[in-house]
Amino acid sequence: MSVLDNRPALKAEVYKVAEVAGYLWEKGWAERNGGNITVNITEHVDDAMRAMPAITAPVAIGATLPNLKGKWFYCKGTNRRMRDLARWPMENGSIIRITDDCAHYEIVADAPVKPTSELPSHLSVHNYLIGKGSNYKASVHTHPIQLVSMSHNPEFLEKDVLTDILWSMIPETKAFCPRGLGIVPYMLPSSVELADETIKAIDDNYDVVMWEKHGVFSVGDDVMEAFDMIDVLNKSAIIYRDACAMGFKPTGMTQEQMKELSTVFNLPK
Ligand code: 13P
Ligand code: ZN
């Protein structure tokens, strides 16, 4: 028995995470247990689920997140592999609910799989998004090879330098990642400081942020959208790299060409 049985909408949401987990593995972005995904599934929770007892004692989140009162999430398990989650999402992830004090979570289903170590960042971001009235339900953290490589060049870490380079590689990147790539300086993985800096970058109007020399964190309506934005950015990073490997620095589209794109497609930047 799984909590997903007879709950087709919830099952579809969790299996979308499994599909994306497979893509992350195939792309080489998910070595070992690398990366994590969480989805706010509260809209799919029914009364029978609400009546289910927790299968673990409450665990402290490390922060009090008032907008998460009564919210439910599907979370990848810590130390679990994306390539395993792709096939068995409920054995490599779990469904949690936030307790009424907004400072703890408890696991409800299917098995006591401890959520990702990056839970502080994921839950802080969900708390922020709900507070803003955003429709975004999913957050994805992954280790895209070429984007992470680019974060090793200090020149690229100045505000919007990397965004401009990546947008200028191919028109689709600006069209489908129209807020660009925010930069979060290196912080210890899974720390509350990393969570706080991630929120600051998202508040600065980015949907995707680079965790310097570590990975990327993105938010979107659903997990597929959060993944797609990282995918288009990394495609640009590969074009940049391949041009350099061919022995020249790519010229990129001009500022005028990018402005025209924003006007015609009504883009925010
Ligand atoms: P978890 O296995 O705890 O999700 O950690 C993976 C990771 O990428 C940490 O940044
Ligand atoms: Zn990571």
Summarize the structure in words.
By secondary structure, the chain is of the alpha+beta class. It has two domains: 1-143, 3-Layer(aba) Sandwich (L-fuculose-1-phosphate Aldolase), CATH 3.40.225.10; 144-269, Class II aldolase/adducin N-terminal domain (L-fuculose-1-phosphate Aldolase, 3-Layer(aba) Sandwich). It has helices at 8-26, 47-50, 82-85, 119-132, 145-150, 161-167, 171-176, 192-203, 223-245, 255-265, and strands spanning 36-40, 59-60, 72-76, 93-98, 104-109, 138-142, 181-184, 208-211, 215-220. Strands 2-5-4-3-1-6-9-8-7 form a nine-stranded mixed sheet, with helices on both faces. Helix 4 (119-132) packs parallel to helix 8 (192-203). The termini are far apart. The model has no long low-confidence stretch (mean pLDDT 98). Residues 34-35, 141, 143, 189, 214-215 line the site of zinc ion (ZN).
